[in-house]
Amino acid sequence: xxxxxxxxxxxxxxxxxxxxxxxxxxxxxxxxxxxxxxxxxxxxxxxxxxxxxxxxxxxxxxxxxxxxxxxxxxxxxxxxxxxxxxxxxxxxxxxxxxxxxxxxxxxxxxxxxxxxxxxxxxxxxxxxxxxxxxxxxxxxxxxxxxxxxxxxxxxxxxxxxxxxxxxxxxxxxxxxxxxxxxxxxxxxxxxxxxxxxxxxxxxxxxxxxxxxxxxxxxxxxxxxxxxxxxxxxxxxxxxxxxxxxxxxxxxxxxxxxxxxxxxxxxxxxxxxxxxxxxxxxxxxxxxxxxxxxxxxxxxxxxxxxxxxxxxxxxxxxxxxxxxxxxxxxxxxxxxxxxxxxxxxxxxxxxxxxxxxxxxxxxxxxxxxxxxxxxxxxxxxxxxxxxxxxxxxxxxxxxxxxxxxxxxxxxxxxxxxxxxxxxxxxxxxxxxxxxxxxxxxxxxxxxxxxxxxxxxxxxxxxxxxxxxxxxxxxxxxxxxxxxxxxxxxxxxxxxxxxxxxxxxxxxxxxxxxxxxxxxxxxxxxxxxxxxxxxxxxxxxxxxxxxxxxxxxxxxxxxxxxxxxxxxxxxxxxxxxxxxxxxxxxxxxxxxxxxxxxxxxxxxxxxxxxxxxxxxxxxxxxxxxxxxxxxxxxxxxxxxxxxxxxxxxxxxxxxxxxxxxxxxxxxxxxxxxxxxxxxxxxxxxxxxxxxxxxxxxxxxxxxxxxxxxxxxxxxxxxxxxxx
Length: 721
Ligand code: ADP
Ligand code: MG
Prior knowledge:
Number of helices: 23
Shape: rod-shaped
Number of strands: 21
Distance between the termini: 37 Å
Helix content: 40-55%
Bound molecules: adenosine-5'-diphosphate, magnesium ion
Largest sheet: 7 strands, mixed
Structural class: alpha/beta
């Protein structure tokens, strides 16, 4: 049995809107194992068609091609790849080299497509065979036509094919160079079958062992010089096709990527702009008040939670809009809060006044009377127990109070005395510089019967973040300067522990209320200005605490009032966030659509770029296919090329978006002493960026590659598809 047997081969080109072109009409002949066979004929007689069919680059309509007895029609796609890759070597008229690669890499690629190791020696041997010793490092676009054709021959023979198919290999060379090439092919034909397509009868007669002449798609003569030797042993139909190793695919892909660095850089710059817009927009779109409060609890080192009760009147029912006012807790509210937020402990700040809302109930300190201002007063009472200091992580200088007339003052209050001095009733101003200076002094409150006096027995360091509040501490209200930090400071002093007096247990109900309001108020429901709890349990617990905004009892019986009660977190973090909350909520909505829009624009741009760079490598794909690259190999190369692009883009866009978030944050809090966190780059933004990039790249590769792979290799090479 012969190696290749062609039997009644028919091929007609059919194209929509064109007349059918019968290119091969019943061509039959057998090919020997070796020798130089010329297929001679005029242009358009079907030579190339025949060669392409023989080499597995094109299909046929009728008849058959038997390869070692197996019909080509029965080849699977994989077998066909392996046949092209292992059994056949192609040499085209246009040498079809990868011009940007060196001679060595062009030749080596053929070996690599078989994932064979030790290609180096084979490449060197092949180059020696074609007299290109020492040309390995030359770039192909620096070679002469004859040299290029010899590289193409080296590439074709390096994998030691059983058959070398050459389509007008000297067609674009001068006659002397053409002669050289024919001599080279003749040498190769001593051990391998070389089929040469040509219209040059002289060369065919001179070099051919056998000349088959075609005319109008039919064999009109066959010299059959060469004795047809049957194959001694039946060789395997196809060599193994291992596929391009990943490392090589990566190398080729990377080479494709950086082939046009300026365009790549421009594309990356444009992508970075649009992707950063996506990242930042999504940071806005995912703004969450509770999370922002939790972030700022951490950032501001807020020492404890402060819960207050908000009262909302549904004035809609009265034909007006909803209004909120902070109010005081009663015991019912306090118990309800404890079931809603899980904290280690809860401490009440009692209001000095029983029947007013919070604002009007502060007590000025007589000993600061010369320097009274908005922020220095006792606004409430907190009763200490033995674990209070350690549970909050505070530090107590001095002693716990032991009786109703002993108090501990917060460090914030001490700072006030340090600033203004201590002026005893009917005495002269004294400087206060250390805790010891204020401990032992007496503070007095005016009440309806005259004065209540307390002895300071200690100072409690409540971890006030003085670094942040220094600018607004004890300062007169100035609307121009009174930004979010001023409001934060206000919240901390009015609702937190910065302006409370710390007393013994039972002080408020058993001593203060009866004394202040009279015995008849002893049983009254206590007025709790705020509830304080230590911050524990991490970010998640903070978000939970910030989320407290629950109606806890329904409408009061009073039909006219329509009052609802809610809890909320207050303090610096909350004030800072709420200062910009309306803006952020508006941005959130707007930027959701911006994120969506910029994502689409980014994806389309990436898609455009990627499908462009893939499509422009059409010729390379054709060459790779012709020398045996499988569809998988082609995908691997483009996946590598654009995978690197996508990975780089995602990494850069992540950095840019995160930095942009920081810049926007600092812009949002321009003029604040301390910066606040509104935007944060989180895993969600990363996921959005990655999804947009990966999706666009994948579609950008798949569509053009699939389109090209559906075409026959011959059509890709010739640029028809
Ligand atoms: P040769 O190589 O001998 O010059 P070809 O095999 O290239 O001839 O072409 C044989 C005939 O088929 C010619 O008439 C040519 O115009 C036609 N032909 C070749 N390729 C195509 C194609 N892709 N579509 C339609 N007609 C084709
Ligand atoms: Mg041709």
